[in-house]
């Protein structure tokens, strides 16, 4: 200990002061659009929508469910189903290793969570994609959970809602993942035959096999503001056609103008809008059956 340290008052401790000034991690988030520094608790209240510029940041599946479904009466569907490795697929790593990493990163067992419950007291079955699980890719588990969700909607005579956030089919399952495109569409055909509505909500991003199958099959197709929606990405398309793409190409507002989606809804208003649409579609279906 130096002579200066000996004469300084005990309350002065440089190391302690530096530690006290350190800001805990995770308290602040920078908006990717307007670059405003936002308090994390404020973002929870706005459902990950920037209060300054209304930019819609990505939202996890569980947080999405909490923002839409009523707290009481929730029942998760198909949570026990797990992915296998029938093809013994390996690229730079084995498929089971990638699954384990995705589970650790996202906290989920696969890329789709399905729950029955209610939205503003209107009964529904809700399916939400978890993009943090291998880019929300659609494999056999996603297809099976989707199918079981539709069966539950048919059994309970309720609407079925799917919130998509996916990069497309899961390459590690090859043909098995592509078969889910037909499987999900076949289940939606059964739902339509029962006169029950399907509402599709497209978020950023909704691409590949998901957009090419059930994502645009909804009785009502809703998109979040500025969500990237399409099959191949804009860069791939530009390289293929060798043309400059229009501004806003493949964004929600562009698709709305072209008639590919029905509505662009702010996430903060989605819960009440879904309840309104379900009540309207259910009433129309009942009147059609009665007639």
From TrEMBL:
Family annotation (Pfam families): Carboxyl_trans (PF01039), Zn_ribbon_ACC (PF17848)
Catalytic activity: N(6)-carboxybiotinyl-L-lysyl-[protein] + acetyl-CoA = N(6)-biotinyl-L-lysyl-[protein] + malonyl-CoA
UniProt-annotated location(s): Cytoplasm
Domain (CoA carboxyltransferase N-terminal): residue spans on this chain: 27-291
Gene Ontology molecular-function annotations: acetyl-CoA carboxylase activity; ATP binding; carboxyl- or carbamoyltransferase activity; zinc ion binding
Keyword NADP: no
Pathway(s) this gene product operates in, as recorded in its UniProt entry: Lipid metabolism; malonyl-CoA biosynthesis; malonyl-CoA from acetyl-CoA: step 1/1
A single GO cellular-component term on record: acetate CoA-transferase complex
Superkingdom of origin: Bacteria
Zn finger (C4-type) start-end: 31-53
An individual GO BP term: fatty acid biosynthetic process
Keyword ATP-binding: yes
Binding site for Zn(2+): 31, 34, 50, 53
InterPro entries documented for this protein: AcCoA_carboxyl_beta, Acetyl_CoA_COase_Trfase_b_su, ClpP/crotonase-like_dom_sf, COA_CT_N, Znf-ACC
PROSITE patterns the UniProt entry points to: COA_CT_NTER (PS50980)
Cofactor-binding details, from the entry: Binds 1 zinc ion per subunit.
Cofactors required: Zn(2+)
Family designation: Belongs to the AccD/PCCB family.
Role: Component of the acetyl coenzyme A carboxylase (ACC) complex. Biotin carboxylase (BC) catalyzes the carboxylation of biotin on its carrier protein (BCCP) and then the CO(2) group is transferred by the transcarboxylase to acetyl-CoA to form malonyl-CoA.
UniProt name for this protein: Acetyl-coenzyme A carboxylase carboxyl transferase subunit beta
């Amino acid at each position: 200990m130096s002579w200066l340290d000996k004469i300084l008052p005990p309350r002065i401790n440089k190391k302690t002061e530096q530690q006290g000034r350190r800001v805990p991690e995770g308290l602040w988030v920078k908006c990717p659009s307007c670059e405003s520094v936002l308090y994390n608790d404020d973002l929870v209240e706005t459902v990950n929508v920037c209060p300054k510029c209304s930019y819609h940041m990505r939202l996890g599946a569980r947080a999405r469910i909490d923002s839409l479904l009523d707290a009481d009466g929730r029942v998760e569907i198909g949570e026990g189903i797990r992915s296998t490795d029938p093809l013994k697929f390996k690229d730079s790593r084995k498929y089971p290793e990638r699954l384990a990493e995705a589970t650790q990163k996202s906290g989920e067992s696969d890329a789709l969570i399905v729950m029955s419950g209610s939205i503003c007291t209107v009964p529904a079955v809700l399916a939400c994609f978890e993009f943090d699980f291998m880019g929300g890719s659609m494999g056999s588990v996603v297809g099976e959970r989707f199918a079981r969700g539709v069966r539950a909607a048919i059994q309970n005579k309720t609407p079925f809602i799917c919130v998509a956030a996916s990069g497309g089919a899961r390459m590690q399952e090859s043909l098995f993942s592509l078969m889910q495109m037909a499987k999900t569409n076949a289940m939606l055909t059964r739902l339509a035959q029962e006169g029950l509505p399907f509402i599709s909500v497209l978020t950023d991003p909704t691409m590949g096999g998901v957009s090419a199958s059930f994502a645009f099959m909804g009785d009502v197709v809703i998109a979040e503001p500025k969500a990237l929606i399409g099959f191949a990405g804009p860069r791939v398309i530009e390289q293929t056609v060798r043309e400059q793409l229009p501004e806003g190409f493949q964004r929600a507002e562009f698709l709305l103008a072209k008639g590919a989606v029905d509505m662009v809804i702010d996430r903060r208003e989605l819960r009440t809008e879904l309840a309104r649409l379900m009540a309207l579609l259910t009433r129309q279906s009942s009147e059609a059956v009665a007639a």
